[in-house]
Amino acid sequence: MKTLLWVVVVAVIALVFFIRAAKKAAGSAEGGKAGPTEQPRRRQLLSEREQAMHHRLSQSLPELVILSQVSFGALLTARAYAVRNTFDRKTADFVVCDKAFQVLAVIELDDAGHKGKAARDGARDAMLVQAGYRVLRYANIPDIDRIRDDFGLGNVTKPVPTQSLAAMSEPASVQGVR
Length: 178
Description:
4-stranded mixed β-sheet, 14% strand, elongated
């Protein structure tokens, strides 16, 4: 009698375990807790901070092409699936190219999501550097001069000569006539 009771208890526990496992598997197959009726939704391409960075890059580097949210799959290639799996779901915040779309640098803008993930970020950077890319990582949105310096383009906020300032204060029809 004790043996029969013991078998029933174990069977009930096993049944509960299998039911929970089946529900969990069904939930993950359906995309999580939202269920099978969930439809893909539109989302914002760039966060407000990323938009501000894109504008700053565009202001700082008007002669270059600024791309955002670039898949590592567009930057890297490999024959082996195992190698491709190391980068195929990653994206770079920004890629800066010349007019011929030759990559000059990959730019990462760190935010709160990067705290405590220095090793992971380092591995991502190393992967890109090993492939021949230059990686610039900013903790905050840099000023225009810093970006131009990082690209070897010099500052845009150079002091204007005093004589030019006087000419600028005159009416447009008089400038250049003395």
